């Protein structure tokens, strides 16, 4: 009879019920956290997969470049006439030269560059012309790294990659120094363009 007069919080079954409720609440919170972590892990894996796919795609055009403007810069440095670009299928080709220097540059219709070739007929004193390539800004460009690589490799055969662009120094068929800049996807793109023209 005395037990019936005890306050509710002093009854043994109230404590057991309270403990069971607390255990249930903690289990529920843990379960939610595990589900959230599981969802975050899945999302992270999906994001990584998406990034890997993006990173594995070959860059065809250097984004945010302005081919016409850069062509004008090269013409100015070389002292050659600026000639309007010629539309060829999906691309615009810019070509100019004189007895000392030659410039060829290709862009898409948005002006983004996929290939540059500059060459000289001079045996020396062409450094400034070749070093002007370091002024090209694109995804992953590094002006100092580009400048130093060209400067260190003038007169040699060498290749490197800086950001999204490949650089190649070599001697052309007539022995004249050539510097090419091109994207990873350029070769495949050129094949596709030839196929379109032949069909």
Quick structural gist:
The protein has about 200 residues and is of the alpha+beta class. A hairpin with a 3-residue loop joins β2 and β3.
Quote the beta fraction.
15-25%
Q: What percent of residues adopt helix (DSSP H or I)?
A: 40-55%
* Arithmetic mean pLDDT: 84
Arrangement of strands in the largest sheet: 1-2-3-4-7-6-5
Q: How many individual β-strands? A: 7
- Poorly predicted segments: 41-55
Q: Any idea what the shape is?
A: elongated
For the structure shown, list the relevant keywords:
5 helices, elongated, alpha+beta, 7 strands, 199 residues, seven-stranded antiparallel β-sheet, 43% helix
Give a written overview of the molecule.
With 199 residues, the protein is an alpha+beta fold. 43% of the residues lie in helices and 22% in strands. The protein has helices spanning 12-56, 67-78, 127-131, 143-153, 186-198; strands at residues 86-88, 91-97, 101-108, 113-120, 158-162, 165-171, 177-182. Strands 1-2-3-4-7-6-5 form a 7-stranded antiparallel sheet, with helices on one face. A hairpin with a 3-residue loop joins strand 2 and strand 3. The longest helix is centred in the first third of the chain and has 45 residues, at 12-56. The relative contact order is 0.11.
How are the secondary structure elements laid out?
Layout: H1 12-56, H2 67-78, E1 86-88, E2 91-97, E3 101-108, E4 113-120, H3 127-131, H4 143-153, E5 158-162, E6 165-171, E7 177-182, H5 186-198
Antiparallel strand pairs: 1-2, 2-3, 3-4, 4-7, 5-6, 6-7
